[in-house]
Design brief:
This protein is of the alpha/beta class. It has two domains: about 20-100, 2-Layer Sandwich (Alpha-Beta Plaits), CATH 3.30.70; about 120-410, Zn peptidases (Aminopeptidase), CATH 3.40.630.10. About 35% of the residues lie in helices and about 15% in strands. It is built from 13 helices and twelve strands. An eight-stranded mixed beta sheet has the order 5-6-8-7-9-12-10-11, with helices on both faces. The chain has a four-stranded antiparallel beta sheet with strand order 2-3-1-4, covered by helices on one side. Strand 10, helix 10 (about 320-335) and strand 11 (about 340-345) form a beta-alpha-beta unit. The N and C termini lie far apart (about 50 Å). About 45% of the residues are buried.
């Protein structure tokens, strides 16, 4: 286990037990590496006990971003010189982005809508309201408890027996707030929209939504640290290294590649598959369904549409169909606002990564269509996508989902 210095120790103490973290004068750098040597330098940094936060994982396929505290600027500048990488300062003061993420509306009274981001209590209260209002077609599932005792909740929309199931999992990474906002927006559309295409989707498929998988981490990202990613289960004698990456914790090539063994790392895979109550409960809930035809995981950011595999560049047996459906989805997403997504399997489109939900579902649950959406944007705002982009993001994603289902039907998957 790597040594953690006193500064790092203090940082984790504040994250775990102190006031809400601030990021005044933290810089965001956009980085491009062109060779394995440069990539290796940043992978070492990611695995170290540095206080530098990787906003996405270093790779040579596309730029990635890091968040650097003021006292680490000299060190990171030295690394830039040594690695001969292309860098750009994207933001001088990260706290300013956080302050501007939500609308400054003093009249806000706690109502639910899609003009702002909501915390878990407000989201669950809205679910309860929808369950009461649409009780004939919408059912609640409390499928487990988190480490901190929060309910793990899903809802199922079903208008007739025998429908194939489409499963949407959201907010497995705590800081990706736009994912639950988009999931709830789409659920609301399925329940209320007069659009013929959406009504067809609502009538002909059962829809299962898990709006927030990582409930403890999500709550913590609201109360303590806006950039929290992982779960909240301790895994180290260094008790301030909390949580694992739940999207590396599933039991398919767990820990093989693209996942860390360091409990302090953002991509820590956990000590064993399903070590997190949240991932174990989700897997057991998924196993209760025998007719899932399409499984979708909502993430942000980078504008990607990904499919298996992540652990290997080996192509799945239906790689051609997965790509064809993905390309149709990409085209539909771009029509409304011109937003461009990249389509491909995880390992080739971005990087090798094992233990993800979509790989596990594809490989162990006999679900031939599994996809990860990485929503807006490409790094300008990253995880702090302003709330006024929730509805535009949701609308273009729904356009994509319509096309995805249509093409999957054409290829006789549904």
């Amino acid at each position: 286990m790597k040594y953690i210095n006193l500064v790092h120790f203090a940082c984790f103490f504040l994250i775990c037990y102190g006031e809400k973290d601030r990021f005044d004068n933290y810089r965001v750098y956009n980085i491009e590496v062109n060779d394995d040597a440069g990539l290796g330098e940043f992978q070492k940094l990611e695995e170290s006990s540095s206080r530098i936060v990787f906003l996405n994982e270093p790779n040579i396929h596309q730029p990635f971003q890091i968040l650097v505290p003021p006292d680490q600027l000299a060190n990171i500048t030295e690394l830039f010189k040594r690695s001969a990488v292309k860098t750009e300062v994207q933001h001088e003061n990260f706290q300013k982005l956080i302050d501007e993420e939500q609308p400054h509306d003093t009249a806000y009274g706690g109502h639910f809508g899609w003009d702002r981001y909501h915390d878990l209590d407000v989201i669950y209260a809205w679910l309860d309201e929808m369950l009461q209002k649409y009780s004939s077609v919408l059912k609640n599932h409390n499928y487990g408890k988190s480490v901190e005792g929060r309910a793990l909740r899903a809802v199922k929309l079903s208008k007739k027996e025998g429908n194939p199931t489409i499963f949407i999992e959201s907010t497995i990474h705590a800081r990706e707030w736009v994912t639950v906002a988009t999931a709830t927006y789409f659920l609301n559309e399925l329940l209320t929209s007069d659009d013929g295409e959406i009504r067809k989707l609502a009538n002909n498929y059962d829809w299962v939504f898990v709006p927030v998988v990582n409930v403890d981490g999500f709550a913590y990202s609201h109360s303590n640290n806006r950039m929290w990613r992982k779960t909240r289960k301790p895994h180290s004698i260094i008790k301030f290294c909390v949580g694992s990456d739940p999207n590396r914790n599933f039991d398919f090539h767990h820990g093989d590649v693209g996942a860390s063994t360091n409990p302090c790392a953002e991509t820590y895979a956990g000590p064993s598959p399903f070590s997190e109550p949240e991932t174990l409960a989700l897997s057991e809930f998924i196993e209760t369904f025998d007719n899932i035809k399409l499984y979708i995981s909502f993430h942000s950011y980078s504008q990607l549409l990904l499919f298996p595999y992540g652990h290997s560049k080996e192509h799945t047996p239906n790689h051609k169909d997965l790509n064809q459906i993905g390309q149709k989805t990409k085209q539909a997403i771009a029509k409304r606002y011109g937003t461009q997504y990249k389509v491909g399997n995880i390992a080739e489109a971005i990087y090798l990564a094992s233990g993800s939900t979509i790989d596990w579902v594809y490989a162990t649950r006999n679900v031939s269509l599994t996809y990860t959406f990485e929503f807006r944007d490409k790094g300008r705002y990253g995880f702090l996508l302003p709330a006024d982009q929730i509805i535009p993001n949701s609308l273009e994603v729904i356009d994509g989902l319509k096309a995805m289902v249509e093409e999957a039907e054409a290829l006789q998957y549904l």
